[in-house]
């Protein structure tokens, strides 16, 4: 409470601090850094003043700002893979300089060494952060040749795949429902298509991906394990372009171009899978008359309203469709929309205002003759967000703002019109307002110390109308109270401190420390490892308390050979409270009293992550190794004893190598190895009704066999037909040495000899070759 | 709705394969397994007591001899069961009635086990019908048997249906409650690939209490999982028996109907 009383004072101090610092004659040069050929923002491009040894980096809108004492300066602008640009300025007043960089024709190796901030990883207080280049994502082989962000991040240290071939992931011992996933600021509630074999992110539409595993800055919140910030491309503001790809099970197409040259642009992508055409080849009508596919679209448009203002509109729409025998089916998907307005003030202040919409729903339909049944469920958000970035001087940057999020939950309803003897049912809708106020200060007082510290004040209000139940120990309702529309049902507050510190040691290494506290007000109930369309998000309430996660991490970062090699070693410890699991035999589908089906407990994880990356050269790539544990303790599970979480994998290794042989050929390979997941196997058997039943004695007391797999791919760029048309072939082989990795192990009676019982391994993907054709003009 | 996942999985199974492997499993203390049933038909009623074995032991489950086994109702009737075969205990005189609460007491070498179960009212099968379906890669051609019955007006009814094809149970757990269908005519479908005209299908409808229903639901979850379902968190079924024994005590209200496929 005391802390909260001091907040307004604290904010005031910070708001006026810059004026104190600006006492002398200081002026600001600011603008946007973009690619000259298409106007795409160069996020993270650096502006450097050699004489002062000071600099700044472009933000997510390409905006940079640097405030200096009056004088003449040479400014050097650089970005990985682009030609360095230098220009002179005469700083006698605030200046606006938009900078356009040109792609370097040289190979990466020659360019990067002269970049001033190639050692960003050493200088920045950021730790436990991974940034992926779209180029890297494209180069890495994946199942069916479908490049995918969520599968690529699983190759990074501390990030684990939740299942074979799937897009679900676990970060540092957290569950998949504890990952914040943002697409142009909008929350994506279900990031997978086709039960996880694809993610919702079409890499054609993506410009930038950043994953925070720890030291999460104050502007992010709402999930306790990680934040994945995915940004869509703007599209070229210079010329129209078309690109696309034809693959074995899906095809995609992208259009982009200027709305008005240099002023505005748009980008539109679409994808559709056709894996189900294989079903149509079957002679079996039971297989033939089924559909299973998804399609999705990304749209983004932006328009400059003047020197200081720019408007952005982005949206995503995706739908999965599954239809069985035209008798029943389910379709599900996400919709997101973001409207943003950037405004640049003269003095180094940048404001982004956003209105964000996001929705996930599923519709389950049964149709049989005159009978007709629909089950629907959804979660829907409307957000308002204001975020300020204030570049006070090269040593001080402030980020502050707020987010207001209105959630509406429709847990489920049945509309049966009396068909199948089923009554109409509507579970009560639930409403909540989640809001946060944040402030962070990035401070570099000396050349050897930099800090990013901040505070996020989050609050959560669950509001009526609705029934609120309380339960006895058996899960039976003992009391029901009704709340009117808008009436407060429960409220929670949390102060979430965030801190990252970087101590530089010499010129090529640094030691970093971080701490963060995160709270999570929405909870994902999922019964399967693969992520299913019917997974349910439930709000915090009088029964379900917000999850809380605290994490401390420490790391040593060192670069070698002129920053060509990056290495890091991090250790972390994480403690999570108010964790949720199901009771045995829980009934969660369309259950008004779903909260009575839950158990609450705590969890913790700790580990070490090693990362070695060669950034440049014809052979580049990385090695990541994670040594970690993740455990849980629930009073009513496993008789209260501590047990390993499903994601408790002791060793996890990923090796990624990309080799550019010539201008036309490039090759890549990945090898992954990990300890099997913790899993519950039977320790005995008995007989009921004459059938053999497995007996379980402990939760997750066994392990799946170790998993390993090698994938290879090759890309051949075709000779250019004319100046604009480019095309390439991608060949890939998944699981090259055809290892039978266990997807599941079941324990069953022998088919021929019922006195015997066997362990039967199900392995999903053996060696799978694929080919796709990509083009661009 | 679980069938959806199975069917979606079918498509991926085009790429999958199954084989038998050796998994190193721990050894466990033999646990007591009690399977006690009382039902609305005439007695005798049977309680079977056995022990669990290790997973890789041969499938022989020794009966527990010389136990004290007693069934009582809430109207003051009670009977101590006699052991006729090792581990098999029978009543001789007890008569069961609908809407009575039954309790089972067992004592094995000084250790007590106890459970209660209420026998609901019998719900009669109103009618049955058949429908032919085409065969394919996964199933042989056969029939679907539709079974109709009227759910009583009050909520909280639970049902299990057992189907016998020519006298042999098909081993499927047909379980439903009236959560979505209270007070309506309810339909359960029995999918019988391989049935041919002339076959007899006998359907038993068991009206059961909540704790017995929960037991069957959680039992069927792990039994289905044994057949290769989604690997969630398998656990022993939720039993109504005390003191850490496996199995259950159920009071079943049974009705029957027979249909000949033609």
Write the layout of secondary structure elements.
The complex is a heterodimer of chains A (about 775) and B (about 260).
Chain A lengths: L1 H20 L4 E10 L10 E4 L4 E4 L5 E7 L1 E8 L6 E7 L3 E2 L2 E3 L6 H5 L7 H4 L5 E4 L1 H6 L9 H5 L5 E3 L7 E3 L7 E5 L2 E2 L4 E2 L4 E2 L6 E7 L13 E7 L8 E6 L3 E11 L3 E10 L3 H4 L4 H4 L1 E15 L4 E16 L3 E17 L4 E20 L2 E23 L2 E20 L9 E2 L3 E17 L2 E15 L2 E6 L5 E7 L4 E18 L3 E12 L1 E4 L10 E4 L7 E14 L4 E18 L15 E17 L4 E16 L8 E2 L6 E10 L4 E10 L3 E2 L4 E5 L2 E5 L6 E2 L3 E11 L8 E9 L9 E6 L7 E7 L4 E9 L1
Parallel strand pairs in A: 1-7, 1-8, 12-17
Antiparallel strand pairs in A: 1-4, 2-3, 2-5, 5-6, 9-16, 10-11, 12-13, 14-15, 16-17, 18-19, 18-51, 19-20, 20-21, 21-22, 22-23, 23-24, 24-25, 25-26, 26-27, 26-28, 28-29, 29-32, 30-31, 32-33, 33-36, 34-35, 36-37, 37-38, 38-39, 39-40, 39-41, 41-42, 42-47, 43-46, 44-45, 47-48, 48-51, 49-50
Chain B lengths: L1 H12 L3 E5 L10 E8 L6 E6 L16 E6 L4 E3 L1 E4 L2 E3 L10 E8 L2 E8 L6 E9 L8 E9 L7 E8 L2 E2 L4 E4 L7 E9 L6 E9 L1 H17 L19 E15 L2
């Amino acid at each position: 409470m005391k802390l909260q009383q001091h907040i307004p004072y604290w904010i005031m101090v910070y708001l006026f601090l810059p004026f104190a610092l600006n006492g002398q004659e200081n002026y600001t040069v600011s603008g946007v850094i973009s690619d000259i050929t298409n106007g795409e923002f160069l996020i993270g491009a650096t502006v450097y003043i050699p004489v002062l040894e000071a600099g700044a980096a472009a933000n997510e809108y390409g905006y940079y700002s640097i405030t200096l004492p009056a004088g003449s300066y040479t400014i050097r602008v650089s970005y990985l893979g682009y030609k360095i640009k230098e220009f002179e300025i005469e700083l006698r007043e605030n200046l606006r300089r938009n900078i356009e960089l040109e792609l370097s024709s040289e190979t990466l190796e020659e360019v990067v060494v002269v970049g001033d901030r190639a050692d960003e990883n050493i200088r920045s207080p950021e730790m436990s952060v991974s940034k992926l280049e779209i180029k890297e994502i494209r180069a890495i082989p994946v199942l069916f040749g479908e490049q995918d962000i969520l599968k690529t991040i699983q190759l990074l240290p501390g990030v684990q795949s939740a299942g074979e071939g799937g897009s679900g992931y676990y970060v540092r011992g957290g569950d998949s429902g504890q990952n914040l996933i943002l697409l142009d600021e909008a929350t994506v509630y279900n990031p997978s298509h086709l039960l996880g074999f694809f993610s919702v992110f079409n890499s054609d539409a993506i410009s930038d991906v950043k994953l925070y595993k720890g030291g999460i800055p104050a502007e992010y919140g709402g999930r306790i394990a990680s934040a994945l910030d995915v940004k869509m491309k703007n599209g070229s503001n210079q010329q129209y372009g078309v690109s696309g790809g034809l693959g074995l099970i899906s095809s995609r197409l992208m259009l982009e171009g200027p709305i008005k040259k240099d002023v505005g642009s748009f980008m539109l992508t679409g994808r559709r899978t056709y894996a189900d055409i294989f079903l149509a080849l079957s002679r079996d009508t039971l297989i033939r008359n089924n559909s299973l596919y998804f399609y999705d679209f990304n749209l983004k448009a932006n328009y400059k309203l003047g020197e200081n203002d720019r408007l952005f509109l982005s949206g995503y729409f995706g739908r999965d469709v599954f239809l069985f025998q035209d008798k029943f089916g389910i379709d599900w998907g996400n919709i997101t929309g973001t409207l943003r307005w950037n405004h640049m003030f003269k003095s180094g202040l940048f404001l982004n205002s956003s209105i964000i919409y996001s929705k996930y729903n599923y519709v389950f339909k049964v149709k049989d003759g005159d009978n007709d049944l629909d089950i629907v469920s959804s979660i829907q958000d409307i957000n308002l967000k204001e975020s300020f970035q204030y570049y006070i001087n090269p040593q001080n940057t402030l980020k502050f703002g707020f987010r207001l999020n209105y959630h509406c939950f429709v847990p489920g309803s049945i509309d049966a019109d009396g068909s199948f003897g089923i009554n109409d049912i509507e579970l009560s809708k639930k409403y909540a307002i989640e809001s946060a106020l944040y402030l962070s200060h990035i401070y570099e007082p000396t050349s050897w110390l930099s800090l990013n510290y901040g505070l996020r004040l989050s609050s959560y209000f669950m509001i009526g109308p609705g029934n609120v139940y309380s339960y006895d120990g058996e899960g039976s309702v003992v009391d029901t109270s009704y709340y009117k529309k808008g009436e407060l049902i429960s409220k929670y507050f949390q102060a979430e401190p965030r801190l990252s510190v970087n101590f530089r040691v010499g010129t090529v290494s640094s030691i970093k420390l971080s701490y963060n506290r995160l709270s999570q007000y929405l909870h994902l109930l999922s019964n399967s490892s693969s992520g299913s369309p019917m997974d349910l998000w439930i709000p915090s309430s009088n029964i379900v308390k917000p999850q809380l996660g605290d994490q401390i991490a420490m790391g040593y970062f060192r670069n070698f050979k002129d920053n060509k090699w990056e290495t890091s070693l991090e250790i972390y410890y994480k403690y999570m409270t108010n964790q949720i699991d199901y009771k045995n035999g829980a009934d969660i589908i369309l259950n008004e009293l779903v909260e009575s089906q839950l158990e609450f407990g705590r969890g913790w994880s700790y580990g070490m992550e090693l990362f070695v990356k060669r950034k440049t050269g014809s052979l580049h790539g990385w090695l990541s190794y994670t040594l970690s544990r993740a455990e849980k303790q629930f009073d009513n599970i496993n008789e209260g004893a501590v047990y390993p979480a499903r994601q408790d994998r002791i060793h996890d290794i990923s090796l990624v190598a990309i080799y550019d042989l010539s201008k036309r050929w490039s090759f890549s390979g990945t090898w992954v190895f990990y300890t099997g997941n913790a899993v519950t196997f039977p320790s005995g058997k008995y007989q009921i009704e004459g059938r053999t039943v497995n007996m379980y004695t402990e939760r997750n007391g066994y392990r799946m066999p170790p998993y390993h797999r090698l994938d290879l791919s090759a890309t051949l760029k075709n000779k250019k037909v004319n100046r604009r048309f480019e095309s390439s072939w991608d060949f890939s082989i998944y699981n090259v040495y055809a290892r039978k990795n266990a997807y599941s192990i079941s324990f069953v009676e022998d088919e021929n000899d019922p006195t015997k019982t066997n362990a039967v391994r199900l392995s999903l993907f053996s060696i799978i070759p694929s080919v796709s054709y990509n083009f661009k003009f | 709705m679980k069938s959806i996942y199975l069917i979606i999985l079918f498509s991926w199974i085009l790429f999958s394969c199954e084989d038998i492997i050796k998994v190193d499993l721990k050894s466990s203390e033999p646990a007591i397994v009690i399977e006690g049933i009382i039902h609305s038909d005439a007695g005798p009623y049977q309680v079977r007591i056995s022990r669990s074995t290790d997973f890789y032991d041969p499938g022989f489950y020794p009966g527990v001899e010389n136990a004290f086994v007693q069934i009582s109702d809430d109207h003051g009737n009670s009977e101590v069961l006699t052991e006729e075969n090792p581990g098999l205990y029978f009543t001789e005189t007890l008569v069961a009635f609908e809407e009575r609460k039954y309790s089972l007491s067992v004592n094995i070498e000084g250790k007590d086990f106890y459970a209660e179960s209420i026998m609901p009212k019998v719900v009669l099968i109103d009618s049955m019908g058949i429908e032919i379906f085409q065969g394919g890669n996964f199933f042989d051609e056969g029939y679907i048997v539709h079974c109709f019955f009227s759910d009583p007006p009050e909520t909280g009814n639970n049902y299990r249906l057992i189907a016998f094809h020519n006298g042999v149970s098909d081993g499927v757990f047909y379980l439903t409650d009236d959560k979505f269908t209270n007070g309506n005519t309810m339909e359960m479908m029995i999918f019988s690939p391989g049935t041919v005209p002339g076959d007899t299908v006998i359907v038993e409808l068991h009206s059961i209490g909540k704790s017995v229903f929960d037991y069957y639901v959680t039992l069927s979850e792990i039994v289905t999982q044994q057949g290769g379902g989604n690997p969630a968190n398998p656990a022993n079924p939720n039993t109504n028996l005390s003191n850490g024994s496996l199995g259950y005590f159920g009071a079943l209200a049974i009705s029957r109907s027979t249909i000949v496929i033609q």
